[in-house]
Specification:
Largest sheet: 4 strands, mixed
Order of helices and strands: HHHEHEHEHEHHHHHHHHH
Shape: elongated
Strand content: under 5%
Radius of gyration: 29 Å
Helix content: 55-70%
Number of helices: 15
Length: 379
C-alpha cells in the first residue's frame, strides 16, 4: 500500500515537471504571469488613487495677520504641497494655466472682522479638471479653515471649548492610502484569475496538441493527471505571489505588511486547490481556448466583484451575502485582509482556512468526476 502510494506520488511529480516544461515554452502565459504580479499591481496601486495627495495650492493673503498666516500654515503634507504666495491679480492667470489646483483668497481685514463677530468670506478657487483632487480637496480645505478659525477665536476671546471632543482613529491605514489596499487586493484577484486560466489552458492544450490521448493510453489514473496539473500550476502562482508581496508590494510600493507572509502563503496554497479545480473543470467543459475564455468571464467576474475585495458583504443584499459566504473566494479575501492588514495569527483565521479547504475538496472531486467522464468518452 505504501509502495503504491509512493509510486503514485512519483508519477504525479514527474507529470508535473512536464507541465512546468510546457509552461516555460508558452511565452504568452509567462508574460501574463510576470505582468499580472508586477506591472499590473504597480499600475493599479498608483493610478487608482481615491484620496487627496500632494495637491498644489496657493494663498493670496490680503490680510497678512496672525490668523491668515495660521490658516496658510495649516495646509500640510501629505494632503497638500507647501502653499505658495500669490498676488490677487495673478489668481485667474494661474488657474487658467493650471499651475494650482486650489487658490485660497483671504480678504483684507479678515482677522479684525472675525474677532468683531462679523461673517467675512474666504474664497477658495478650485480647478475641477483634477476631479478627484478637487472634490476631496475642497472639503478638506473648508474643514481646515473652519477649524483654524474656531481654535483661534476660542483662544483670543476665551470662548468655552465644547465638552465633546471627537477623536477619529484610523487603524491599519492611518492616511487611508488607496495603494495600500489596492495593491494587495490586486494580487488576490490575480491569483484567482491566473489559477483558473492556467489550469484550464493546461487541459485545453493537451487536447489541441493531441497529447491527451497519449496520457489516457498510459497506465495513469485521472487523479494523477489532475493532481500533476494542480501542483505544477499552483507552484508557479505561489512563487509569483511571494515575489509580488516581497519585491513589488513591500519593496517598490513601500506598503507595510503587518502580518505573516508565510502564513498567508499557506492560505494561498489551500485556496489554489479550489481555483485550479475550477479551471480544470472548465477546461473539460470547453473545447477550445475561446470557449474557455467565455466560461472564465462568467465564473471569474461574479467571484471577483462579490468576494468582498471591491464591496463589503455588508453592502450587499442579505440573500446574496449568504450565497457568497459559501464561496472560497470570499474567505480568501477575508483571511488575506486579516493576516496582511491586521496582523492576525493562525488562531484567528483557521476557521476560514478550514472552510476554504472543505469547499476546495468538493470542487476537486467535481473536477475529477468531470475529467473521468471526458476520459471515458475519449476512450
Amino acid at each position: 500500500m505504501l509502495k503504491q502510494a509512493l509510486r503514485s506520488a512519483s508519477t504525479i511529480f514527474w507529470l508535473g515537471t512536464k507541465e512546468l516544461r510546457s509552461f516555460t515554452h508558452d511565452t504568452v502565459l509567462i508574460v501574463l504571469v510576470i505582468y499580472s504580479f508586477s506591472l499590473a499591481v504597480i499600475s493599479q496601486a498608483q493610478s487608482n488613487s481615491q484620496e487627496l495627495n500632494k495637491a498644489s495650492i496657493a494663498v493670496a493673503d490680503e490680510d497678512n495677520s496672525p490668523l491668515s498666516r495660521r490658516i496658510t500654515g495649516a495646509f500640510l503634507a501629505p494632503l497638500f504641497l507647501p502653499p505658495q504666495p500669490l498676488a490677487v491679480a495673478d489668481i485667474v492667470p494661474a488657474m487658467n494655466a493650471g499651475k494650482y489646483t486650489f487658490v485660497v483668497d483671504i480678504p483684507p481685514h479678515f482677522e479684525r472682522d472675525v474677532l468683531s463677530g462679523l461673517s467675512p468670506s474666504i474664497q477658495i478657487n478650485v480647478d475641477a479638471t483634477a476631479m478627484i483632487q478637487a472634490g476631496l480637496g475642497s472639503g478638506y480645505a473648508g474643514q481646515i479653515i473652519n477649524t483654524e478659525i474656531a481654535d483661534y477665536v476660542s483662544h483670543r476671546q476665551d470662548v468655552p471649548v465644547s465638552p465633546v471632543n471627537l477623536i477619529v482613529r484610523i487603524a491599519f491605514n492611518p492616511n487611508a492610502t488607496t495603494a495600500w489596499f489596492v495593491s494587495v487586493m490586486g494580487i488576490i484577484n490575480n491569483v484567482t484569475m491566473l489559477a483558473i486560466i492556467m489550469s484550464g489552458a493546461a487541459v485545453i492544450r493537451e487536447r489541441e496538441h493531441g497529447t491527451m490521448d497519449h496520457l489516457l493510453a498510459m497506465p495513469l489514473s485521472p487523479f494523477q493527471i489532475v493532481m500533476s496539473k494542480i501542483w505544477a500550476n499552483g507552484l508557479i502562482i505561489t512563487l509569483a505571489v511571494a515575489f509580488s508581496l516581497y519585491i513589488v508590494v513591500r519593496g517598490i510600493l513601500a506598503v507595510p505588511i503587518t502580518g505573516s507572509i508565510p502564513l498567508f502563503m499557506i492560505g494561498v496554497v489551500i485556496y489554489l486547490f479550489f481555483a485550479t479545480s475550477i479551471g480544470i473543470f472548465l477546461g473539460t467543459v470547453a473545447n477550445s481556448m475561446p470557449q474557455l475564455g467565455l466560461l472564465f468571464m462568467l465564473v471569474f467576474l461574479p467571484m471577483n466583484m462579490l468576494s468582498g475585495s471591491n464591496t463589503p458583504l455588508e453592502s450587499m443584499p442579505v440573500w446574496l451575502a449568504d450565497i457568497m459566504e459559501l464561496s472560497p473566494s470570499t474567505h480568501f479575501v477575508s483571511f488575506a485582509q486579516s493576516i496582511l492588514y491586521r496582523g492576525a495569527g493562525f488562531g484567528v483565521v483557521w476557521l476560514e482556512f478550514l472552510a476554504v479547504g472543505v469547499v476546495a475538496s468538493m470542487f476537486l472531486l467535481l473536477a475529477l468526476w468531470r475529467f473521468r467522464s471526458v476520459a471515458a468518452q475519449s476512450n
